[in-house]
Queue: 2 jobs
Job 1
Amino acid sequence: MQNNNKTIPTILVTNDDGIHAKGLEALIEIVKPFGKVIVVAPEEGNSGMSHAITIKHPLRIRKHKRNDDVDFYSVNGTPVDCVKMAMNQVIKSTPNLLVSGINHGSNSSVSILYSGTMAAALEGCLYGIPSIGFSLLDYLPTANFEPTIVWGQEIVNIVVTNGLTKGTCLNVNFPVTENGQYNGIKVCRQNMGTWREEFEKRTDPRGQEYFWLTGYFLNEEPNATDTDEFALANGYVSVVPVSIDLTNYSEMKRISGLENISSPFQNELKNK
Amino acid sequence: MQNNNKTIPTILVTNDDGIHAKGLEALIEIVKPFGKVIVVAPEEGNSGMSHAITIKHPLRIRKHKRNDDVDFYSVNGTPVDCVKMAMNQVIKSTPNLLVSGINHGSNSSVSILYSGTMAAALEGCLYGIPSIGFSLLDYLPTANFEPTIVWGQEIVNIVVTNGLTKGTCLNVNFPVTENGQYNGIKVCRQNMGTWREEFEKRTDPRGQEYFWLTGYFLNEEPNATDTDEFALANGYVSVVPVSIDLTNYSEMKRISGLENISSPFQNELKNK
């Protein structure tokens, strides 16, 4: 197959849990039927790294041997570094698909903002690649990804066939259900919510305070039925189309009065 | 003033260039007339950290002495860590305003995705605080922030007076002009673009390759006149209202066919 790869679709795979994560192997299994798989993933776990890029220390890339025809590289950086390194140093032409994950843990609702998994998908989107981030609502290293395979392949199949609108990628979350079955797929919007009571305070042996990040998710729309949180709570796979354009267009009109400022400065402000 | 702070507005200030940045002092100067200023900023520079949070090592917070009535703290973490720490450990009630910056360097267009400055503003937004990220198109430590002060105060004044729609914050960028004057303010949308040729390859003394992140911005809309890039190139202060809801609502309809998947699995896929 490798000698004929001009006609075989190329699929770039990355994640934020690092090259040893079980979810990465599940994702490779999902996309293998669709083309030549090239993995470029972080050496170590990068949960919560969001869209961070590495500018303070140099990056290195390492090729790993495998027993299948997957090209497999690690980078000592973030998920977004991995996508950039893949696009600039590994892949000669734009891949046909980028997939990221499968994350161990949810990236629904506002968790997308903190997510390295989804940042990699957004980065792929910036390169014009149809991109999907996948997450399973089980953060354990031993999570069971078996139910995600066939549903993941259905979603990939549709994206490969129909494409995605430029500047848009998908945030796919798989629920955990008692019988391992899903009730179907819901195309939904991002649930609004926030995190609360986020630190655990401890004291070190020298009497100095330190804090571990922790806390719980507060669902601000518990009664909504069109959100990813609702879909997941009801046994559906949630699919949120996500835009790299963060502009709030309706707010542009509301704040247009800002353009009337022409002659600063109100001196009285300084004396308030 | 401190004894009467129930009636004085509270303003939370952070940045991503760290507590020693000149831009942080400029921002303090902007907001001082509007209330009690509390700074919680990263100990060190955190450019390119985006919405990253620190989960692998513990955080510590340190109070610093100053010669004015500004409360000033540093945290050994990211800009988003600083906002969370401020909200959970420093400030008793929700502040009236959060400002982040002034960043040394642009956060226009898609740079918002990588920006720690704007991530702090988005985090403030998640807490329901009217939030503004400020950046100046000069990355040098010695950048001249003088022209930003009066315009910054005008923008803060309007936001404090009128508020912002829930889930929306502002991405404000100041241009650099020859005469230090701005032509006004433009309320605009995020320009689309991407980064190219992003690595400089070097060889270390032991013959091993390594890479420094670098590259240039490719403006994908050079002829657009309603974007932040256009405003800045023409000497205007750009103001983009930014949403924490990343859902692409029009794309939801286009991909609604995904919901028709009910009976995986197409076995032939596996044999492709």
Job 2
Amino acid sequence: MANVSDITVSAAINSLSALLFLLAFAIFRLQPMNDRVYFPKWYLKGIREAPSTSGPLVKKFVNLDFRMYLRFLNWVPAALKMPEPELIDHAGLDSAVYIRIYLLGLKIFVPIAILAFGVLLPVNYTGKNFKIMSVSMKDLAFGEIDKFSISNVEPASKRLAAHIVMAYVFTFWTCYVLYKEYKHVTDMRLHFLASQVRRPDQFTVLVRNVPADPDESVSEHVEHFFRVNHPDQYLVHKVVYNANKLAKMVDQKKDLKNRLIYYSNKFERRPDKRPTTKAGFWGLWGKKLDAIHYYTEEIEKLSKEEIVERERVINDPKAVVPAAFVSFRSRWGAAICAQTQQTKNPTRWITMWAPEPRDVYWNNLSIPFLELNVRKLIMGVAFFGLIFCYLFPIAFVQTLANIESIEKVLPFLKPLINRGSVKSFIQGFLPGIVLKIFLLILPMILMEMAKIEGHIAVSILEAKSAGKYHIFLLVNVFLGSIVTGTALQQLKQFLDQSASEIPKTVGLAIPMKATFFITYIMVDGWAGVAAEIFRLVPLVIYHLKNVFLVKTEKDREEAMDPGSLAWPITEPRLQLYFLLGLVYSTVTPLLLPFIIIFFAFAYLVFRHQVINVYNQKYESAASFWPDVHRRILIGLIISQFTLLGLLSTKKAANSTPFLLVLPVLTVWFYKFCKNRFESAFRKFPLQDAMIKDTLERATEPQLDLKSYLKDAYMHPIFKGGEVELMDFDEDDDDFHIVATKRASRRGSQAGTTDCSPDPRNTGFNAV
Amino acid sequence: MANVSDITVSAAINSLSALLFLLAFAIFRLQPMNDRVYFPKWYLKGIREAPSTSGPLVKKFVNLDFRMYLRFLNWVPAALKMPEPELIDHAGLDSAVYIRIYLLGLKIFVPIAILAFGVLLPVNYTGKNFKIMSVSMKDLAFGEIDKFSISNVEPASKRLAAHIVMAYVFTFWTCYVLYKEYKHVTDMRLHFLASQVRRPDQFTVLVRNVPADPDESVSEHVEHFFRVNHPDQYLVHKVVYNANKLAKMVDQKKDLKNRLIYYSNKFERRPDKRPTTKAGFWGLWGKKLDAIHYYTEEIEKLSKEEIVERERVINDPKAVVPAAFVSFRSRWGAAICAQTQQTKNPTRWITMWAPEPRDVYWNNLSIPFLELNVRKLIMGVAFFGLIFCYLFPIAFVQTLANIESIEKVLPFLKPLINRGSVKSFIQGFLPGIVLKIFLLILPMILMEMAKIEGHIAVSILEAKSAGKYHIFLLVNVFLGSIVTGTALQQLKQFLDQSASEIPKTVGLAIPMKATFFITYIMVDGWAGVAAEIFRLVPLVIYHLKNVFLVKTEKDREEAMDPGSLAWPITEPRLQLYFLLGLVYSTVTPLLLPFIIIFFAFAYLVFRHQVINVYNQKYESAASFWPDVHRRILIGLIISQFTLLGLLSTKKAANSTPFLLVLPVLTVWFYKFCKNRFESAFRKFPLQDAMIKDTLERATEPQLDLKSYLKDAYMHPIFKGGEVELMDFDEDDDDFHIVATKRASRRGSQAGTTDCSPDPRNTGFNAV
């Protein structure tokens, strides 16, 4: 797979598969019955109505040849047409900034590619093809493509100066573009925050680790503390109930209701036969029962239990966790409370900006300080194990899943297994599939780890699991492809090597792996992005739901799965392309066009998806940007060290001091940007708070902020609830019953804090 | 120098020299003429008066045999007598906490030594003396002492389990003691801050990087900004003048005045001969002049220039730097402003707690943000060069200073140089002296580097230079003693070794270096501390000043040099003893008693010095403690890795996982303590601010805070000044002339921000 014609073939195959996905998309999106799969965003906005299905079906197929081709091109300008401010308005700042990452890739790599093709390609091509590799290695990975790579330059040649100069140029260009982008995103964020309408989280602070008081309840203690220490600013607060058990019950009930609907539909269609189910697990075994009757009874039983539990939560003082949402009279007051330390002991009365209500991860609000530290330690060790030992459990499962064990456990399968084709399938594919499944569920494992670590907002959970995923991909995909063997073997190899040898090992392997990574970009990047726009999994699930569950138009709306950007998964994968581009920009510039095509294509696709499909669960106002920035710089530093190692194998060791300057400058640039911009993503400046407060006081002097904030931070389980809720009212310091209204559809939907990243939404294939 | 008898001799010699210092101290401190050298603290407090010098001088010498010996023991109980609260009151919290570090050393090492002697010594001694070293190495460093060290345990022996268990016990004990101490110091600090009287810095925030405004002066801009964004809290502010040139003039004038006094005194003593001086550099050459006349004229000239410059500074708007001290109505308001971000751009309107007035480093208040970042980058690179290349310039100077070059440059010295004894002195001692001089001025170099980095308080400058000094000692003294060769050669050696080999190299060398470090502890530790109490350099300087400059009692007071703890120098050196104790606790426990004697002796000496001698320049309320804590933990981690390396050379590689747990736990412990305690040293909690404010409002309702704060943050150059000062008054927004009173003596003295650490104050010999 090493010479140019091989790559051409591979590119052709992958372009074709990408084209097939696009064609399938072009066909499927025109079918009215798929409209809710490909345009759910517009339905959620209430702008789009179901297209009439009365027209003659055949017409679409008749027009296929001509119109389809037009349509096939059609979505591209449509995706590009919407201007950025409108896009922010339509899909939120997170989405708008997210697709800018692809644009950033283009901004970085197009000029780099032009320079590299103009300067480095001629320098490499006219070099003497002085092979330093052994013949076997040459057979493996060296081919015509290497005529254009640094491998073609003979060791200790003066030509290598060109590569060093280019490394400088590329570093400065990348930093320049990153600086401009950071500045622009910061401005966008600040502008977005400034132009936002009034939101409860602007006035609210989350206080955790409220110390126990023998004489006062948590609620009283919180109120007295803030009345004393923020006398002019304190307005109202909301204690947090531990409603985890109740939430589980509600989920269970929803599941039962779905089953009831399924069987009712079945009965409606065939009224002659009452549907039956079995009492055991998942209706698979046990006594045969009348399904409709059984589920109706089960739901009633659960409803009663739910009411009991609901009352217990509200009335039992032990169900109140030592945390509260404290709201202030002004944004200024909240900004002050969030940024300052309240008491001597920094592990008590910890204040931070409240996440927006949809973003709160309720389960973790009550973890005490010491436990939080222990959890982090354990998860740190577990993550280390996950990176370096993840192949052990997989190997174990694979051993279990081999022919002999299967035969032993399930002897009746023996005749089947012993048939040649089945046997070879099991032996050939099963190990690979186990690994594939692991990589598919890896983001979910990382998300669970982040939850155990005890973060209190979905956005933080996602950021943390994204960080872990990035490290995993860096070690096990990038390094794992270069230094063969398991991560543990690599680690041992690196530890046994001297520090100055490590970059050499990596540097030596880098040019040889260029063709592998080009193929990777085409398979994972090109075809993956095309698969993303086709949305196969949501398509299938939607139609299954449509057949079995949907009765009314409202049901159909609920069956829609718009999905979301799932950036904790896509962003770390995306970083791999930045890394590859930066590493190969000086080594094998031929790789750059493939990266550029990926970024351009992905930009189009994701812009389309953001406009027509995805529905973000919360809005963090691009708070993930510092992570994106940092990770690109990590890629830049890795690229500098690999070049350093590569050149030292080229007997150009005296270039080392020149190249060592680059990582130092890059680290300094990182720190500079951090100081300059990061606080805009972490803190809320007082001046802006004051401006908004003053404006609001002038325009709405009669605003009743207290009632506006009262129920903003209520556990979602109480918001959608139908029973009455005992609530603590601050005005007259006594408990009375307040009927809570059913929250608006949007609030209820937003309240479901299902934060497992959903791998279905990303067309990328893991590894 | 390897066997027990050698060490006994060395111990005897060093104990004797320490004893000699103590004896000299005992004699000298009784002489009334030395009273101001050994008890300056009491003079400064105004408690002690000069002892009468009228008694018969001979009496002291008569009583010498008997009384002196009693006195010699006498200062020890006196040093221990003062209880800690009184000590804090007398010498400040910084000093009281500083001497607790020595106590901490005792708390850590006494139990460790008991356990190590009880468990490890028998285990080591009964091991088979299986030598793994080559014969030449054995001759070099192995001796009887190794019978008690881990070297005596044969490789792969089960006995090594004892060392691993002890490593765990020592780690947990050290962490436990450190935790208790951190907690105690935190409580002391908080109690100290809470019981402090009203101080200007409690109400004041330093704001830097005030953006330029075309319509307003800096002063107006500051006032408007804080009136808007802290409406209820803003009280008054003080702009900062760039008076660096003026300060230089004042220093120059002081110097000239000293010369004038010197010549006047000379003339008084011998009125027959008018003293003369020369006009050239330092009075060494040039035209001969009448000294008194010449200096009187010079002073007059300078005074006139000074007045002009003083007026320029006050009237020229360009002399106002974009920084200001902003004071608030309450501590609460200041705490809020110091801890929050003011504007979108985090590089503007940067607020932080104002250092106390004595602590401000005025020269650095005006550095803009970008320049600050560039300065830090340059200093980082320079520091790296200083660590790894400091021997190059020294070698260069040494080459210049060899016989041949001296002969070439100064041929007339040839006959002198060629005499045997002089030649051997130059060749034998000069290179060593050059190195010694470098190490003596190193702290000053590091302080200059910290100043260039742009920190704005003397306490921060000292903390930063201490951190650099610690790293320097770690690399060039500890590692440099173990891995011979220059730091650059070491670095190369480490880079060329594999990561898993480095601990082995160090681990192998550690037991061999035990005797070297025991000698080091005695020379640098024991004798050094004894020299500290003797105060030779201040003694000589005081008497020189007394002879040449002192005329009145006030002059004599100014001639006193109480010095200060100079913790940026002593603390990093001290850390070396913690490191050695921790490293050798499992390897060669015989080293521990030497460490314990050092800590006990140093505790006594420094307690005496703090009570009787030192006068701290500012009070940071023990804000250095997090650094002390961190550095001890760094020592602990180094000790764990060296043991790990040592055991892997002992063919006990399977112990590695057990020992790897320790650094992980230690790092976690560090993070835990950081979260738990550090903010008490960095932030001022709102609750405490509120309590103090409320109390003050109740007890002193009539307090005029504005006039109290008005001149607190004035450049010291204006405080001591005699000319009138134009001042900006906030009440009526116009300039009028306010006569500033001569500041009180204490304030003026405190205002001299001479912050170069003074190596004279520490008896430690560098390396």
